[in-house]
Amino acid sequence: MLAFLRDRKVRGYIFQFLSIVIVVAFLWYIGVNTAHNIQQRGIRTGFGFLSGTAGFAINDTPISYNEGDTYARVFLIGILNTLIVSFVSIVLATILGLIIGVLRLSKNWLVKKLAAAYVDIFRNIPILLQILFWYNVVLRSLPDPRGSIDFFGKIFINNRGFYIPRAAYNSTTFSVIISFFLVIVFLVFLNKWAKKRQELTGQEFPVLLTGIALFIVVPIIAFFIGGANFDFSYPHLNGFNFTGGKVFYPEFLALAFAITVYTATFIAEAVRSGIEAVDKGQKEAAASIGLTGYQSLKLVVLPQAVRIAIPPTINQYLNIVKNSSLATAIGYPGLVTIFAGTTLNQVGQAIEIISMTMAVFLTISLTISLVLNWLNHKMKIKER
Amino acid sequence: MAVYNKIESRKAPSNSIGFFHWIRENLFSSPLNSALTILGIAILVLIIPPFIKWAIVDANFKGTTRAACTGDGACWVFVKMKLDMFLYGFYPEAEKWRVNLTYGLFFVVIASFRYLKGSMLKLSIAALYFIVAFFLIHGGFFGLTNIPTNKWGGLMLTIVISAVGIVCSFPIGIIFAFGRTSELPIIKSISVTYIEFIRGVPLITILFMSAVILPLFFPEGVNFNKLLRALIGITLFEAAYIAEIIRGGMQAIPKGQYEAADAIGLSYWQKMLLVILPQALKVAIPNLVGTFIALFQDTTLVLIIGLFDLLAMVQLTTSDSHWIGYETEGYVFVTIIFWVFCYAMSIYSKTLEKRFNTNLK
Amino acid sequence: MEQQEDVIEIRNLNKWYGEFQVLKDINLNVKKGEIIVVAGPSGSGKSTLVRCINYLEQFQEGTITVNDVELSDDVKKIKAIREDVAMVFQSFNLFPHLTILDNLTLAPIWVKKTPKKEAIETAMNYLERVGIADQAKKYPNQLSGGQQQRVAIARSLCKNPSIMLFDEPTSALDPEMISEVLDVMIELAHEHRTMVCVTHEMGFAKKVADRVIFMESGQIIEENDPETFFNHPESERLKLFLSQILSH
Predict the structure, then answer these.
(1) Smallest Cα distance from C198 to chain B, Å
(2) C106 contact B CB<8A
(3) What dihedral do alpha carbons A350, A356, A358, A363 form, nearest 10°?
(4) Rounded mean pLDDT of A258-287?
(5) CB contacts, 8 Å: C75 with chain A
(6) CA–CA min distance A308, chain C (Å)
(7) Fewer CB within 10 Å: C terminus or N terminus of chain B?
(8) Residue C191 in contact with partner chain A when CB distance is under 8 A
(9) B184-204 pLDDT, tens per residue?
């Protein structure tokens, strides 16, 4: 019998069995207590609450919403708002991070030091503090609507928001938007064709320049085809406030700016380490075989740098999505704010609500991780 | 076939060295560079002088009331009068010496580490320090009055949460790192599930969970005060990140180390604790310090669940009717404190990295 | 020659890595005090075979009996075998975070529960034997490759094993350091320890081996005493192998 217990494999099984027992026992203990406590406090269970009436206002909604809508709609709006602010922040932070990362390696001493200072400053201030600072100090110190900063009488900036003209959902707008997508698709095929042509004839085709030109010319043509009239609705002062036009509320702006500035520091570091990781010898070899600076960047340095810089950058995208939950501190109607916040306060079903919230974030995280794994796999340098 | 005399070194031509040469090379070497330099100087001029004017030149330092803040500059009088709130929260005036003593003892302990040898001794002293610190701050024993946790606040609370967070999440993280690298499938699955779940959700949802749902998990009588709930949430959260960092360290260790430890007869736990973990920790130290910095910053989130850490103090102090409107000064002050702490820790991390790099070479 | 007992008995050993069979029907007996050299091209399975003897590698078919104890998953048996079977690795595998002395005393203190003083005495003894006593307080990375491997040998001697396994001990060394390690191994060979060595150093084999075994593609092709093995090889594959390694 004892020899049986000394067997390595048997010990492994016993240990795992005990672990499962402990985990299950703990979960059972929690479950029993929770059921009891829920009953005691008269909290309801189940997801029926989702069809209840929300009864509160939300100021920033991408889809239509009024107080009579259901909590399910609130959930949806929360998800949309979280995705919107995350997407905007991701785009801005990537651009800013790319610029700062490259500047950090500049030969210009002043520029290099300024970029380094930027990273060292904003990386060491908590993100929540930055959000509150933007919201309570920067944006609040903007003038009242009546004294707005205005650009050409069409764009207004004040402490209630950032107001720009809004194009109507008409044929002109749609045709311009569609034209952008068409240009992107066309460029993808153009790139493929250009590569093939280069393989056959050796001639290069200026895809980048063509692309830039197309992005400018085609939407303009589409604009005229679509009726040449965006039918803008302009923001104008109505009493104490602005109406009309498209408004970006201070909550959105503060959140987006703070997250952008903060995350750009990490992306800048990722970009820098990617470029630095490319051996100096690579640039020298590229130069010695006659490639121009731009060619060496495009064909030799960037492909290698990108391989190293992409995983941490995508990790930062994940952090952006998670940090957007801090919207709750300034009232931006993200998922945590209006669902795990207001709805939870009204309905009280904490377990269901927080689980749903976590499930949304988990799904987004897993999706981003899968994208990262796919990218890594595609870019892997083949080894023996 | 030719023989040459030795040539003495000469000074370099004057236009390739010296201050002006450096300026030319680094700041104005090309039109683009010159433009960037001018842009950079412009940015500095736009930001620094106005800030110095606001923060120092026009600022008010003397006085005790709002009336003393006359100028356009910063009203540091506000910060001065509310300094106790920022640093100690609601800790009673008469007992503040206890917090100061705890800070002082911390530096004594750190200094003593330089002269003490042996990790067991250091660990024991560190453990002893935490016990003493707890008694000092919490009170209720040895004649010290009990200061309930809802009176802890400000910088002191931030430090307490960070310290407890790092100390408690560390061993849990190690356990999950071992679990994730284990060959036993059940253990590995449990660890992976825990780690990936925690890393996929924002800290605020974990804090909400521990603030609202945790009390439901336990029978009626068991009471968790607010601070304890926050500490549990933060500990469980950071443990997952520490687990991944330690696992990264473990992966940097060659397989031969595991084999050699097996070959000389060490058991699993002996192998992990005596051979693998020490090496993994060394490799992981820069990342571990990075996590500590992140933890220190993450403690600000407790203000969302109603604890009054350093950041929360800004809103709290400006809600005093006498001092309304001075949030800017409050935020700037708190920003400086956080920045100094975090920057100091990042410098420390860089020196640690250098030291260990030379060690391992 | 007196009747020596078999300290290692390998019967019908077969091992697969996934679909790939890496050891085929290995049958081998090693007598007490015998010096066995295992040679062959890379990928022949010789390292795998040796690593099976102290159960660093497991196998699907066959039996291995060491000192009358049959290898299995029984923890106590594994421990007993590893106390008497020592291994020297190609990449030394010294513990970089411990001093040389600590590297040697680790196992005696924690596994055999030897008092520290005694462990240090024994350790210093063996360090002197391999000629590194003056480096006892240094760290592995401060020593040369040859010195590290000698420390590794000393580490494995600390438990006074009756069987020593060597997995290409000099393959990772710069040429000028190979002889210092081989000298130590030759000394050990004169002490009647049972040794199984995987090595390319044919000079060593000629000097001290009792038997040389040639493996290829996972099986034993030929085994003989050194004289016959090197000067009168029988199989074609061994002839080819010898011509390749002895041509320079």
Answers:
(1) 17
(2) yes
(3) 180
(4) 87
(5) 6-8, 11
(6) 29
(7) N
(8) no
(9) 899 999 999 999 999 999 999
Size of interface B-C (CB pairs under 8 A): 59
C191's CB contacts (< 8 A; 6+ apart) are none
C171 and B CB contact within 8 Å: no
The pLDDT of A55-83, averaged and rounded, is: 88
B346 neighbors B293 (Cβ within 8 angstroms): yes
CB A230 within 8 A of CB A168: yes
Confidence bin at A144 (pLDDT 50/70/90) = confident
B361 contacts on C by Cβ (under 8 Å): 141
Angstroms from B98 CA to nearest CA on chain C = 40
**CB within 8 A of C12, min separation 6: which ones?**
C25, C26, C27, C61, C62, C63
Find the CB nearest C56 among B262, B270, B278. B262
Model pLDDT, residue A22: 93
Rounded to 10 degrees, what is the CA torsion of A262, A265, A270, A276? 180
In this complex, the residue of B218, B314, B343 whose CB is nearest that of residue A33 is B218
Closest residue in A to B40 (Cα) is A111
Q: Buried (b) or exposed (e) across A54-78, using 16+ Cβ within 10 A?
A: beeebebbeeebeeebebebbbbbb
> From chain B, which residues contact C within 8 Å (Cβ)?
254, 256-257, 259-267, 270, 274-275, 278-279, 282, 360-361
Residue type, B45: V
% of chain B surpassing 90 pLDDT: 34
* Subunit contact B205:A38, Cβ cutoff 8 A: no
Q: Pairing mode, if any, of strands C6-17 and C61-66?
A: antiparallel
CA distance B346 to B110: 18
Residue showing tokens 């529960």: C113
Closest C-alpha among B337, B251, B241, B335 to residue B289:
B241
> pTM for this structure?
0.82
Q: How many CA atoms lie within 13 A of B339 on its CB side?
A: 16
Q: Report DSSP letters for A247-290, one per residue.
A: EE-HHHHHHHHHHHHHHHHHHHHHHHHHHHHS-HHHHHHHHHTT
Q: Write down the pLDDT at residue A384.
A: 40
Topology adopted by domain A71-141+252-379: MetI-like fold (1.10.3720)
Mean pLDDT of all residues in C150-169: 91
User: Residue B310 in contact with residue B86, Cβ under 8 Å?
Assistant: yes
Amino acid at B335: T
Q: Are the beta carbons of C72 and A11 separated by less than 8 Å?
A: no
Chain B residues with CB under 8 Å of C54 CB are 263
Please, which pLDDT band fits residue B361 given cuts at 50, 70 and 90? very low
Q: How many CB pairs under 8 A join A and B?
A: 147
User: Are the C-beta atoms of residues B176 and B194 closer than 8 Å to each other?
Assistant: yes
Between C151 and A282, the higher pLDDT residue: C151
Provide the CATH topology of domain B76-91+147-355.
MetI-like fold (1.10.3720)
> Cα(B69)–Cα(B65) distance, rounded to whole angstroms?
8
Nearest CA in chain B to A359: B201
Chain length of chain B? 361
**Which neighbouring-strand residues pair with A7?**
C74
Are residues A314 and A375 in contact, defined by beta-carbon separation less than 8 angstroms?
yes
Query: How far is Cα A257 from Cα A132, in angstroms, rounded to an integer?
Result: 11
Inter-CA distances, B38 with A67, A101, B21, Å: 54, 20, 18
Domains of chain A, residue spans = 1-33, 71-141+252-379
> What is the average per-residue pLDDT within A4-32?
88
Summarize pLDDT for A99-127 with one digit per residue, the tens. 999 889 888 888 899 999 999 999 999 99
Q: Give residue limits of the domains in chain B.
A: 27-57, 76-91+147-355
The rounded distance, in Å, linking the Cα atoms of C91 and C188 is 20
